[in-house]
Design brief:
7 helices; single chain; elongated; mainly alpha
């Protein structure tokens, strides 16, 4: 009985932590996008783009979408808080919203690249050398870093050439330094594991009771059968 209470307490603790991490991640995303907005304004000023063809206006729609999607992380947190019993449904909702947020942030990088291409800033010696040296490793880097952890592209093609002065590089650096989904991913897994452990124990208890009932039936069966046989013997 005590162990059952402990397991339930563990589940409740992990889901309470998940609720808090969801809220914190949503807040972090909002702060990160505000920093990005500021950085884009500085980039535009540096390049003399004050009213037309600014990176800030080019990115505005996707930034708003990313902020709206990230805000939905709080809706999942509220679902967990209102739920009387933690379930896999909340885990699935949290994971889906985490992935959607990650995709929205990735879209920002793609949009930034399009802006650079449109303005001819993704070409030139620096970009060409960077692409030749680092391009073949991009997929591997994204798999091990990005929003789910620190990436090893920490210089964005630095070295003797320095960082490329592009909106894509600015967006990547801003996201890397101000936002990641690593903690949320870990907490979702922890909440899911606590549910699985509780479920396994529950099924084991049912199996034990079924075995006990069967053993009781087996013991009672022969006695009654033997009694019946003796009663009909002439």
């Amino acid at each position: 009985m005590g162990k059952s209470i402990d397991r339930n307490a563990t589940v409740e603790k992990e889901f309470a932590s998940l609720e808090q991490v969801l809220i914190q991640t949503a807040d972090d995303a909002s702060k990160c996008l505000n920093v990005l907005k500021k950085n884009l304004s500085e980039y535009d000023s540096r390049h003399g783009h004050h009213f037309i063809n600014t990176s800030k206006s080019f990115m505005r729609s996707d930034m708003r979408t990313a902020k709206d999607i990230a805000r939905d992380l709080k809706h999942v947190a509220h679902q967990i808080k209102r739920s009387h019993k933690p379930s896999k449904s909340e885990v699935h909702s949290a994971r889906n919203m985490m992935n959607a947020t990650g995709k929205a942030m990735e879209v920002l990088q793609v949009t930034a690249r399009h802006y650079d291409e449109k303005n001819g800033r993704s070409t030139g010696v620096t970009a060409a050398i960077k692409h030749a040296v680092h391009g073949k490793n991009d997929k591997e880097k994204d798999a091990h870093g990005g929003l789910f952890g620190k990436s090893d592209y920490h210089q964005d093609g630095g070295g003797i050439l320095g960082s490329p002065d592009t909106v894509e590089a600015l967006v990547k650096t801003t996201l890397r330094d101000n936002f990641n989904l690593n903690v949320l991913s870990f907490q979702i897994a922890a909440a899911e594991k606590s549910l699985s452990s509780s479920s396994i124990v529950g099924r084991a208890k049912v199996a034990v009771h079924e075995v006990k009932d069967k053993l009781k039936g087996d013991k009672a069966g022969p006695l009654h059968g033997g009694h019946d046989k003796r009663s009909v013997t002439p």
